[in-house]
Amino acid sequence: MARKNRFTPGILQRAPWHVVDNQVTPESVFNDRRNIIKALGLGALGASLPGQVQAGIFDLFGEQKAKNPFTTQSLNYSTPRQFVLPDVKTPEDKVTRHNNFYEFGTGKSDPYDNAQGFNVDPWTLVIDGLVDKPITLDLQALTKRFALEERTYRLRCVEAWSMVVPWVGFSLATLLKDAGVKSNATHVAFETLFDPEQMPGQKSRLMGGGIHYPYVEGLTIAEAMNELPFLAVGLYGKTLPPQNGAPIRLVVPWKYGFKSIKSVVRIRVMDKQPPTSWNQLASNEYGFYANVNPEVDHPRWSQASERSIGEGGLFSAKRIPTQMFNGYGDFVADLYKNMDLRKFY
Ligand SMILES: Nc1nc2c(c(=O)[nH]1)N[C@H]1C(S)=C(S)[C@@H](COP(=O)(O)O)O[C@H]1N2
Ligand SMILES: [Mo]
User: Fold this and answer.
1) Could you report the per-residue pLDDT of 129-170, keeping only the tens digit for each?
2) Could you identify which of 1, 29, 48, 107 might form a hypothetical disulfide with 24, taking C-beta atoms 3.0 to 4.6 angstroms apart as the criterion?
3) For residue 265, how many other CB atoms are within 10 A of its CB?
4) How far is it, in rounded angstroms, from Cα 214 to Cα 202?
5) Domain named Oxidoreductase molybdopterin-binding: which ranges (predicted)?
């Protein structure tokens, strides 16, 4: 968006940070706040109170920010050379403050702002369906059962921005092999926690971006058994913060970011293609496969290039060309050998 349009002309020229805050907050939520302040009889005075005081008022509704940031722990892991990227890593504070996690709101800073109080203990991740031995992992087991490794992956959002993130975790294939995938399996389904008390976006259609919760995703069995899909339990050497999908999330680096489902509670091996959240919402825009492909545009924007978050300044992020399969063709191109990628987008 053009910089000259960022400031509303008028009698009251607001400070730039005020406008920025307004812009990253979805309209609906912003209006809710004002209406609540009005209802409290605070009127214009309430609306002009400093942000922290406003946040305090919202604590009355159990809706706003936790006082203390979520705490993370350092992890032990190896760093296989195969998954070290030459790319410049996106700074940690960008990775943890520019997020898509609609369960906590649709604005890019909403997940950071609204998820700090997220409670992941206790947690249960169930791996079941067409497997020989279903597995249940509790919070401890997520970081203890498998040897952890660090993998730096490119993350390409369908909205045409990207990051380079050093994740810590283990491969999905390792977990599935442990469970023993039955021979009639064709797909793997994933499901995010459903907990509207903790995830305000699951309570309100507007705040949750219209998604039908719980957020669900899926892969074919061949994709899932490829060595790239990663179950991340950390980033930058520490356990995941909630806005990035604590305590465990999938990372599928050759697909658009919406496939990389966060805060996973169930992985189910199936014999049919499972429904997936963005495809359910708008199937003409978001397919099941969602492979990064600079030649197949999204109906409303080009996928030929991307804005690299963290490279360049706030208003001048660097634009770089998008690579086929996000640069992971050597690992995955074979999976799609005989497939029309325009049809199966
Ligand atoms: N449960 C859940 N998982 C999700 C999302 C979401 O809204 N809910 N957003 C997806 C999208 S669109 C992207 S681009 C990535 C962003 O991951 P990040 O915030 O860690 O960069 O998470 C994906 N996983
Ligand atoms: Mo995304």
Assistant:
1) 999 999 999 999 999 999 999 999 999 999 999 999 999 999
2) 107
3) 16
4) 8
5) 119-278
Distance 178 CA to ligand 2 centre (A): 30
Structure tokens at 90: 């996106």
Type of residue at 97:
R
Within 10 Å of residue 186's Cβ, how many Cβ atoms?
13
Nearest Cα residue to atom 6 of ligand 1: 101
CATH code linked to domain 21-336 = 3.90.420.10
> Largest Cα–Cα distance of the chain, in whole Å?
69
Instruction: Say if CB 155 and CB 253 are below 8 A apart.
Output: yes
∠ CA 92-319-279 to the nearest 5 degrees?
80
pTM: 0.83
Residue ID of nearest Cα to ligand 1 atom 5: 101
| Gap between the Cα atoms of 304 and 296, Å rounded | 8
Which helix (H) or strand (E) segment holds residue 216: the answer is strand 216-220
Note whether 168 and 215 are within 8 A (CB).
no
Residue among 99, 103, 260, 306 whose CB has most ligand 1 atoms within 8 A, to mutate:
260
Indicate the pairing of strand 161-171 with strand 216-220: unpaired
DSSP 290-309: -B--TTS-BTTB--SEEEET
- Hey, which residues does 231 pair with through a beta bridge? 170, 250
Q: Give the DSSP H/E element, type plus range, for residue 47.
A: helix 43-47
pLDDT in tens, 260-271: 999 999 999 999
Q: Which residues pair with 189 in a beta bridge?
A: 218, 268
142, 233 contact by CB (below 8 A): yes
99 lines ligand 1 (CB under 6 A): yes
